[in-house]
Amino acid sequence: EVYTRERVPLDWATTQNNLGNALRALVQRESSAARLEEAVTAYRAALEVYTREHVPLDWASTQNNLGCALTTLGEREDGTLRLGQAVAAYRAALEEWTRERVPLGWAMAQFNLANALSDLGERESGTGRFEEAVAAYDGALAIFIPAGADHYIKVCQANKNRVTMLLYGKQLQLLTDDIDDV
């Protein structure tokens, strides 16, 4: 039996989401931007059926997956468009993956959001993105630590430390620029 959008829309959307995940996994072996573009297309197709109103947790999961694909694309590009889209996707996911409702999902989305924000912070002149990233890492750690998610604690803390150093460096540069202007 063929899963068509018309006959079994939720199964079709699940297949699209799984296709996006598979394509994203292939990128680790092939390093192909084309596969990432295909993953983005598959996630967006799934989101046409996985609506927030009808299947909010599936919608949130797919938004998070879309954010991951967009972050990877954004890291490979010079601009900020994809990273901005990733931030929007993670923030959308967090509307349903709340801390109270899905604590580990919320923490993962916070972690992913922080990663995208830190990438944006490296490309923008201000410190706001770094500050947001540190806050998101702190939120994720507040769940990961009591859950005993050792791997995520280690990676999240390392990323937070790196972003904190970048934040301090950027703040110092801004102060130095201000002094030079005097």
Short synopsis of the structure:
It is built from 7 helices and no strands. It has helices spanning 9-30, 33-49, 56-76, 81-96, 103-123, 128-147, 150-181.
Q: How far do the termini sit from each other?
A: 73 Å
Count of discrete alpha- or pi-helical segments spanning 4 or more residues: 7
Helix content: over 70%
Instruction: Give the number of DSSP strands.
Output: 0
The main sheet comes to: none
Low-confidence stretches: none
Order of helices and strands: HHHHHHH
- What is the mean predicted local confidence, pLDDT? 92
Class by helix and strand content?
mainly alpha
Beta-strand content: under 5%
Globally, the shape reads globular
Over all CA atoms, what is the radius of gyration? 18 Å
Polypeptide structure, described:
The protein has 182 residues and is an all-alpha fold. Helix content is 82%, strand content 0%. It contains seven helices and no strands. The chain has helices at residues 9-30, 33-49, 56-76, 81-96, 103-123, 128-147, 150-181. Helix 1 (9-30) runs parallel beside helix 3, helix 5 (103-123) packs antiparallel against helix 6 (128-147) and helix 6 (128-147) runs antiparallel to helix 7 (150-181). The longest helix is centred in the C-terminal third of the chain and has 32 residues, at 150-181.
